[in-house]
UniProtKB/TrEMBL annotation, chain A:
Name of the protein this chain belongs to: Carbohydrate ABC transporter substrate-binding protein (CUT1 family)
Gene3D superfamilies (alphabetical): Periplasmic binding protein-like II
A GO molecular-function descriptor: maltose binding
Record keywords, A-Z: Signal, Transport
CDD domains, per database record: PBP2_TMBP_like (cd13585)
Signal peptide: 1-21
SUPFAM superfamilies (alphabetical): Periplasmic binding protein-like II
GO cellular component, one term: ATP-binding cassette (ABC) transporter complex, substrate-binding subunit-containing
Stated family: Belongs to the bacterial solute-binding protein 1 family.
Domain of life (superkingdom): Bacteria
GO biological process, one term: maltodextrin transmembrane transport
Provenance organism: Frondihabitans australicus
Automatic annotation (TrEMBL), chain B:
Transmembrane segment boundaries: 34-53, 94-119, 131-151, 171-191, 237-259, 285-309
Gene Ontology cellular-component terms listed: plasma membrane
Highest classification ranks of the organism: Bacteria, Bacillati, Actinomycetota, Actinomycetes, Micrococcales
Protein name as catalogued: Carbohydrate ABC transporter membrane protein 1 (CUT1 family)
Membrane protein topology class: Multi-pass membrane protein
Domain ABC transmembrane type-1: 94-306
Alphabetically ordered keywords of this record: Cell membrane, Membrane, Transmembrane, Transmembrane helix, Transport
Family under the similarity heading: Belongs to the binding-protein-dependent transport system permease family.
Length: 400, 316
């Protein structure tokens, strides 16, 4: 009989992938507490911050920078193959979603808390009563303005919606629009619309309300006045920044991460103020920035060291150092105020961050669905497919 | 050194009387035959069978971010499909997919055939020009969509600046929800022309020149020659081009994501981008799988048509 040989050949062929998988699976879980792996979507300019803490703890680091858009898919892959890094950076609205999956360990295990940080940080990083992430620095958005164009028109920066609308109209001349913001069909568009919505008392639980309708109506009025380009439905925040640098927008909504590009632009004089609200009350803008978390890797020794490392990153001294490198705002209230006093360019962001609101504060892991509804409504209204009220109603009832 | 041709031993067709050991040889031959098939069978099962089966299973599960850590994907029956079919976005996606596919294929084919006929007449530099025509095919899709996004920009895009020279006001190509789909189809047509031209051109090369000579003696030239000689001769090539084009166009995702991301206001959302959005933005892989299964069924129908056509062509 020759059949067994055939079966043996098939079996051998079938085993090859298993053998290969066996080879690649081992090795990475043997990390001792003397070294840590870190994963983030920053660039190597962030490394000095890590290295300072590594030196303090006497450990070596393996830093892995991933392209921004691919981070979450990579984390999901690593979760299923049990190869999560020791320290994982996450954008703050993603923290609760990942914590829900069970991939993160509570930071109270390592004696860490968000005490002394701006209140929104704790809200953004807490899932079911437990803190999962800490943000050394944070950011938000504010209203940048071109100093030369405003003084030429004899305008001081607006504080209320009416002022913003009138100023934007006055500043619109030739190929220059008075105002620019991103209304794109991604979470960036939602993030930029939130100050108008929240500042007017709107809420993500139900966007089919008068307060949110007024906010969307205001966004639309800027466009129908001709003060904001119709292209804003296709602009990401980087595009908005390019318009501002090119002098095609006199005012824009953007964040402190644009400061390096803005400072590098020759001949551009700019400053920023908190985003105007309807009546001039304090701005309610979304809290930005990235959190550091300690994934459940199963290796207790390196998880403990990772906890210490995250704690080190979050000390006020390291927060201030971090702010200097990244242009963001320290999350510690005392440190942030000191930072704002010495760095006038970020002063408006320091003010905004104190009263900022966490996007996941209310809905937690369900935030992405609400965010999709919000940008869908904004797009429907700005493209003229529906009135603001109808657009919000339609988006709210959308089942996706 | 010269190579001398070895005389080949031709296998004899006449059956030989049974000899001991021949049975063994036949079993060995059978085994050998199977051994040649097995690698291909394993390849197909692992790289084509498994993903499709997995995708079908996934569409009946609640497969989210949690699944990746715990490995648990609760069975939810047809609720993913219910969610997909009851969403207003599904209808929009379906209509857009239809418009996108039909619009792209009709224009790609018409322009492709026109260019193929044009290049059939040999003229100076025709080879060089035909080479240039392949260019859209050679550029990575994500790069060409980024470039087209600049070209089509309402305020500072090259296309609108060109139109401004003729006094035409700026056209909101990617901004107006009524125009965005047209613009996206236009870019996809540009992308598909090389494929259509190349395949149709090679089909035209295979038409014997004598047929035209004979026909011209009978007075059939120009349109008549095309209708009675060219078209019947390339018909099988035409059906292959169209069916492959349809399957290829149905699944376009990167071009749309690069140009509009499905916007503005979902006006360029297709089944493919919808599936992408569900799986990789919302991380609802079960719902994404349900949408892509719809797409797979549609593609499968066209693939069957393709197989039927090619088989017929071989039979002829």
């Amino acid at each position: 009989m020759k059949k067994p040989r055939l079966i043996a050949a098939v079996a051998a062929a079938a085993l090859i992938p298993l053998a290969l998988a066996g080879c690649s699976g081992s090795g990475s879980s043997s990390g001792s507490a003397k070294s840590l792996t870190i994963e983030d979507y920053f660039t190597s300019s962030y490394n000095p911050i890590y290295n300072k803490c590594a030196k303090q703890l006497g450990i070596t680091l393996k830093i892995n920078h991933v392209a921004g858009a691919g981070l979450i898919s990579k984390v999901l892959q690593q979760a299923s193959s049990k190869t999560l890094p020791d320290v994982l950076m996450l954008d703050n609205p993603d923290v609760q979603q990942i914590a829900e999956s069970g991939a993160l360990s509570p930071l109270s295990d390592y004696g860490l808390s968000a005490k002394g940080d701006v209140p929104a940080v704790e809200k953004a990083n807490t899932y079911k009563g437990k803190l999962y992430g800490l943000q050394p620095v944070t950011n938000s958005i504010a209203l940048y303005y071109n100093k030369k164009l405003l003084s030429a028109a004899g305008i001081t920066p607006p504080k209320t919606w009416d002022e913003l609308r009138a100023d934007a109209k006055k500043l619109t001349k030739g190929s220059t629009y008075g105002f620019a913001m991103s209304n794109i069909n991604t979470y960036e568009g939602t993030w930029q619309f939130l100050p108008f919505m929240w500042g007017n008392g709107g809420d993500e639980k139900n966007i089919d309300t008068t307060a949110t309708t007024e906010a969307l109506q205001f966004d639309l009025s800027l466009q129908s006045d001709g003060s904001m380009s119709k292209s804003s439905v296709n602009w990401a925040q980087a595009d908005v920044n390019n318009q501002f640098i090119a002098g095609k927008a006199a005012m824009m909504i953007n964040g402190p991460w644009q400061l390096p590009a803005l400072n590098a632009a020759k001949g551009l004089e700019f400053d920023s103020v908190p985003i105007p609200t309807k009546t001039g009350s304090p701005t309610v803008a979304p809290l930005g920035g990235e959190a550091f978390t300690v994934p459940e890797t199963g290796n207790k020794a390196s998880m403990t060291t990772a906890g210490k490392f995250v704690g080190c990153l979050n000390t006020s001294k390291m927060q201030t150092y971090n702010a200097g490198v990244t242009g963001n705002v320290p999350t510690n209230i005392v440190a942030s105020k000191a930072w704002g006093a010495s760095h006038p360019q970020v002063a408006s962001f320091v003010t905004t961050v104190q009263t900022a609101r966490a996007r996941t504060g209310e809905l937690g892991p369900d935030w992405p669905k609400a965010a999709t509804k919000i940008y869908t409504a904004v797009q429907l209204a700005l493209t003229g497919k529906a009135t603001p009220a109808a657009a919000l109603k339609q988006a709210q009832s959308q089942s996706q | 050194m010269s190579v001398t041709a070895q005389p080949r031993v031709r296998p004899t067709a006449t059956p030989l009387p049974m000899r001991p050991g021949q049975r063994r040889a036949r079993i060995l031959a059978n085994t050998m035959r199977w051994l040649f098939v097995i690698p291909a069978a394993i390849f197909v099962a692992v790289f084509f069978g498994y993903p499709i089966v997995k995708n079908i299973v996934m569409s009946f599960q609640d497969y989210g971010t949690r699944t990746f850590f715990t490995g648990e994907a609760p069975w939810v029956g047809i609720s993913n499909y219910v969610q997909v079919f009851s969403s207003s976005l599904f209808t929009t996606s379906l209509i857009n997919t239809g418009l996108f596919t039909v619009g792209s294929i009709v224009m790609q084919f018409a322009i492709g055939l026109g260019l193929a006929l044009f290049f059939k007449r040999n003229f100076p530099l025709s080879g060089f020009l035909r080479g240039l025509l392949l260019l859209p095919w050679l550029i990575p899709l994500i790069a060409s969509s980024a470039i087209w996004k600049w070209l089509l920009d309402q305020g500072s895009g090259a296309l609108n600046q060109g139109l401004a020279l003729f006094g035409i006001p700026a056209v909101p190509w990617l901004v107006d929800p009524n125009l965005a789909l047209v613009a996206v189809i236009g870019v996809n047509i540009w992308l598909g022309i090389p494929f259509n031209t190349t395949i149709l051109y090679s089909g035209l090369q295979a038409v014997p020149e004598e047929l035209y000579e004979a026909a011209s003696l009978d007075g059939a030239t120009g349109w008549k020659a095309f209708r009675h000689i060219t078209w019947p001769s390339i018909r099988s090539v035409v059906s292959v081009v169209i069916v492959l084009g349809v399957v290829y166009t149905l699944k376009v995702v990167d071009l749309i994501l690069g140009l509009t991301g499905g916007g503005p206001a979902n006006s360029t959302q297709t089944l493919a981008t919808n599936a992408y959005h569900q799986s990789f933005v919302n991380f609802e892989f079960g719902v994404g799988a349900a949408v892509s299964n719809v797409l797979i069924v549609v593609s499968f129908v066209f693939a069957m048509v393709y197989l039927a056509i090619t088989r017929k062509a071989v039979d002829e």
